[in-house]
Amino acid sequence: MSVPVDYYVLLSMALFCIGLFGILTRRNALMFLMSVEIMLNAANVNLIAFAFYHGNLTGQVFALFTMALAAAEVAVGLGIILVLYRNFRDVDVTVPSAMRW
Amino acid sequence: MATAFEFAPAIALFPLAAFVIALVFGDYMPKKGAFAGIFATAGSLLLSLWVLATVAGGEPYNEQLYQWAIGDQIGFHFGILLDPLSALMLVIVSLIALLVHIFSLGYMNAEGETGLRRYYAELGLFTFSMLAFVFADNLLMAFMFFELVGLCSYLLIGFWFRTESAPSAAKKAFLVTRFGDYFFLVGVVAIAATFGTLSFAGTESFPTAAEAAIDNGETLFGFDAETWVTITGLLVLGGVIGKSAQFPLHTWLPDAMEGPTTVSALIHAATMVAAGVYLVARMFGFYAQSPTALSIIAFVGGFTALFAATMGVVKDDIKQVLAYSTISQYGYMMLGLGVGGYVAGVFHLMNHAFFKALLFLGAGAVIILMHHEQDMWKMGGLKDKAPVAYYTFLSGALALAGIVPFSGFWSKDEVLFDALIVGLEQPLFLAAYAMGLIGVFFTGFYTFRMVFLTFHGEPRTDAARDPHPIGWSVKVPLIVLGVLALVAGVVNLAPIGKLTGAEITFLEFWLDGEYGAIEGLTYHAYHEAVPFAEGYIGTETVTMLVGAGLSLGLALAGAGLAYSLYNVPEPVPHTEKLGSVRTLLRSNYYQDEYQVWLAEGLTLPLARAADRFDQGVIDGVVNGVSSVSLFGSGWIKRIQTGVVTNYAALLVLGFIALLVVLGLHGGWFA
Amino acid sequence: MMIETLIAVALVGALVTFVAPNKVAGKLAFAISLIPAALSLWMFTAFDGSGNALLDGQLAFESRMEWIQLGEYSISWFVGLDGISLPLVVLTTVLITLAIVSSWTPIDDRQSQFYGLLLFIEANLIGVFAALDFFLWFVFWEAVLIPMYLLIGVWGGPRRKYAAIKFFVYTNVASLVMFVAFISLVFGLGDSVTSFALPEIASAMLEGGPGSFAGIAGSTLAAAVFVAMFLGFAVKVPVVPFHTWLPDAHVEAPTPASVLLAGVLLKMGTYALLRFNFTMFPDQVEAFAIPIAALAVVSVIYGAMLALAQTDLKRIVAYSSVSSMGYVILGLVAYTQFGVGGATFQMVSHGLISGLMFMAVGVIYNATHTRMVTDMSGMADRMPIAVGVLIAGAFGYMGLPLMSGFAAEYFIFFGAFGSEMLEYAPAFTALAMFGIVIVAGYLLFAMQRTLFGPYRLETDYDVGRAPLHDVAPMFVLLALIIALGVAPELIFDMIKDAVDPILALGGGA
């Protein structure tokens, strides 16, 4: 007997909301990046849970892809944050607002 | 053997060649291209005389030479029509043009004038246009060269373009005549669309077609045929009134005196102004179909004759007096044509060409003598110092005033006689006749006022005491024209013919086709078509004697009054006694004022209002549309803050909104 | 392959000029532009077509290749010339060559781009007049806008951005309206068309007309499409009240761009009207004849009145173009041989005359650096030859006989007066003809104030005679204007041939 899929979905939802909350409220770019990671992992949990539920491997494969993507994303994201810090002496995401109207 | 007609196109093409030569090479030629013009017009004159002789030999000519534009139902072409009328006019025009060219040697070249190349080129183009207009065989070709004549007069009136007044006068001349030509062009288009032909002569001509339409009682463009002929005839008449400076489009002519005096001579005697009346004579067969049109021609003519003559009385500038006399004299021609006196009108056109060219060239000679002074009050006493100028000018003045036996008497008398006999039956025409008759008195007065002030009395200025000499090139044209002004009347001594029974009305025979003419274009044909009855006081001879006596008496009375007032050593400006009438006359009955007002007081503000409307309303709507979109996007763009957090929030909100919408649509919450 | 050669030479020439050094760009572009000009003149003499391109006519220099299959519709590279389009192609190539020469003096920066764009616009203009497939035509039609936008926006006067954007957006929106209308027409025609070739669409239109589409009945659809397309082209012509982009564009554009704008770009509008509205919709033309004629008359008179109120020489000529194009609309709606033929003739004639006028104004501007009537007088004293040509051009504009303007206007007036399809035709014609008085009024006023009188100039420039290469193109144009005025049959013959099949469809003959 195994854990029903509902619990996984609830866990994933909770993780996603935590990440979303972080994105909407935090101004520190590092916290931002972490929140995005949490959301990505929420999606991973979902993918694996449904893969297990449906009994095929597609979801797991995609979870692997997502992890690779997340790694790449972190690399790029950290790079951006470094540049951000270099230019603004700060990692506050609301400061650089030149890309607007 | 080559006939004259094969060379006929060259009559016009010679001056055209002179135009090109003078324009391109004028600066490198002796006399700046004058000789090109002289040789060309001399060639035209010789060819015209040859044509005249050939026509007199009974061979008229009417050929289409060049297809200009061909349609399925109508083609437009250039052609040459040589009949007694056009052959006569060709000779007159080329003769006057030649004399003007010669005179220019003394008038323009001697003065160290700049721009002579331009002057001679434009003279050549002017002559070309007029000659081509004269031998045009259809109305469209006539219109085209009519317009070119207008262009050339614009260029020549504005010859001294560095002044303020000459360009203004040139513009006015072109614009006023353009206004008339607008009606002319509508008329051309209407006639072409109605009758499918624009030819003057032949079986396929529009007068013939009009006659047939009237006879068949056709309905054309919603009017019965005769009304439509009247309408189209009057439309064409618009151009005539503009070019021949008839009331109310006469205002450009006095201003046109800004051009060189030689140009004035050409414009007044043989080209621009003559073109209008010539056109009426050319298409007389068409006007003869419409009594209404004819009576309007007669009335406009009679009125203009009197109207312009009264204004001539008070002018001080010698050229201004002549300008108003021109308007007045063309009024007589229109009066003659309007009452059906085709021969009389053409006769006066011919005589006027001679004596008016003479008077203008004489005035030019006076201006040379006077070191470019035109005010008659600064002249006086030139009689003894320049006898050639004096006697030839006198010859012209006597002809203009209509004193027997000078040429003007015979033709003006014939015009008035024709008006009188028609007026006796149709009292309406009697008014036109009366206006013409009264005009004779004023003509006699202003003519001799001019002569006495200029040549008689004591010299009133230093310039008049020590006149500039005039050369042969001035004297020769004056003498030629002076003799013509005296003797040209013999071609149609109608009164003497009627008294003695001698057959000496040669011009009438000529125009009647006794020596050859194109069928339908003869005086007889016209006379039959004109529907006016004629009446006499007693017999024809008595009527004629009464008419001639009246007009001669009035002319002599006018001249006598001028003699008593102005032939004194120290004349004074008597016209000032006229008081407010003088002011009215000197202001030309305020005709200029209202026409300038129409242009500058009405049209220009209207144009400015249209511009404001255009910039404000129409362009305002266009700019308004763009402003509204700019304004709207100005608000919407603000949601793009540049803060990533806000974008994320929007994303989330959008996603939730989408979920809710889909949910509502899918019935999740039902 | 002649048309392809023309377009290819211009395109390759544009690229070559683009990368050429600024110093030689002008001469190089001139040399390149001589090739299409000479070729098109040769084509003019070798023209062997007959009839109308859309109505089973024998096309000259035809060439057709399948290009794209779009669902059930095929799009092809389909070009060819008939008696209407050939004169316009020749006008384009000649005017481009002359415009290049006339830019030598005024254009003094980024020459290689400038001349490259001129050649690029030439390629597209030839395409517009030669294309016989709707999509191909539309590509050229839209592509013309880009170089003209840049010519105005980069080399223009002080308000160049405003003028360029206005020009681009206005005409582009109009194209969009027209495009949507035409596509819905094609869908409405349903199975009767399988390609966007204009002859096929025309014959489908004339044989049955559109069926219902998107819930709109066929006859309503045809009428709606006719109106939408008329409006779309009316902006390009321009017809009052869609004309306000024109004076702004002209005033800001550099002289050569003005020459092309007035000389050729406006003719795109009337050409398209003739090709689409007046060929494919004879019934609708009849139904809408009176409003269209009224618009034409308003354009003539109102445009002339606006010209009368201007003090900027370029604005005067720009508004007078509005007036002149009104005559074209009047001629088209008359639907007679001389009316439609005269309208086509007027397209060519006005292209030459307005080109000449803009060049002449440009030459004066080069010398004085002002175009305001109030800033100068007596220019004839300083630049006699240029002013002489300007006067000749002005009289051409006024419709002086023996110049092409008179022939065109006379044909239109005669054709319109006797129109059987247009009610009250004589009244409309007589009203429109009054334009010839107003045009004389404003041109004579402007000439009197700028060219004559004592010499006076408000700006501090030393005015000398214009260089030969400024004046020479104007003499070429003047010669063409006089040649067409004396012998209109030079092109009127082939125009008639192409116009007659159109008239056979509808009211008049």
TrEMBL record, chain A:
Query: Pfam family of this protein, just one?
Result: Oxidored_q2
- The transmembrane residues are 6-24, 31-55, 61-85
As for membrane topology, the entry says: Multi-pass membrane protein
Q: Which UniProt keywords apply?
A: Membrane, Oxidoreductase, Transmembrane, Transmembrane helix, Transport
- InterPro entries under this entry? NADH_UbQ_OxRdtase_chain4L/K, NUOK/Mnh_C1-like
E.C. number: 1.6.5.9
The top EC class is oxidoreductase
Q: Where in the cell is it found?
A: Membrane
**Molecular function (GO) terms listed?**
NADH dehydrogenase (quinone) (non-electrogenic) activity
GO CC entries: membrane
* Primary subcellular site in the record, as a coarse category: membrane
Family the UniProt entry places it in? Belongs to the complex I subunit 4L family.
Q: HAMAP family per the record?
A: NDH1_NuoK
Q: Per its record, how is this protein called by name?
A: NADH-quinone oxidoreductase subunit NuoK
Species name: Natribaculum luteum
